Amino acid sequence: MSTDRPPPSGELPDPARLDALLSAAARPSAVDPGAESAAVAAFRASHASGVRTWLTRRRDDWRPRSPWRRAALRAVLGALVAGLTRANRPGSRPSPSRSSRP
User: DSSP assignment, residue 57?
Assistant: First the structure.
C-alpha cells in the first residue's frame, strides 16, 4: 500500500504521518528571487499599460454591489407591475363594438 494514499474508510490515519504532511504543507517553499522579481515586473508593466481585456466574473468580485443597480432593478420591476396592473383593470381595454359586425 502506498504511503501517499489516504487510508481506506473506517481507518484512522497515523497521527505522526498526518502531522508530517500538515507541517510540510504549511511550510513555505523556497522562492527564486529572480523569478519573483520578473513576475512582479511583468505584472506592473501589464497593469501600467492600461489595456485590460478581461472581465471579472461576479462570483470572483467580492466587493459590495453598487446601490444604483438595486435601485434600477426596483424601478424596472415597479414599472412592469404598474403597467400590468393598469392593463388588467376592468374597462381599460376597449370592448368590440357591435356596430362593426356585419
Answer: -
Query: How many other CB atoms are found less than 10 A from the CB of residue 45?
Result: 9
Spatial distance between the Cα atoms of 25 and 19, rounded to a whole number of angstroms = 10
Cα gap 30→78, rounded to integer Å:
58
Are the C-beta atoms of residues 72 and 66 closer than 8 Å to each other?
no
Burial class of residue 19, CB neighbours in 10 A (0-12, 13-18, 19+)? exposed
pLDDT tens for the chain, 102 residues: list them: 455 666 666 677 788 888 988 888 888 888 888 999 999 999 899 888 877 767 777 777 777 777 777 788 889 999 998 888 877 666 656 666 655 555
Q: Which three cell numbers stand for residue 14?
A: 497515523
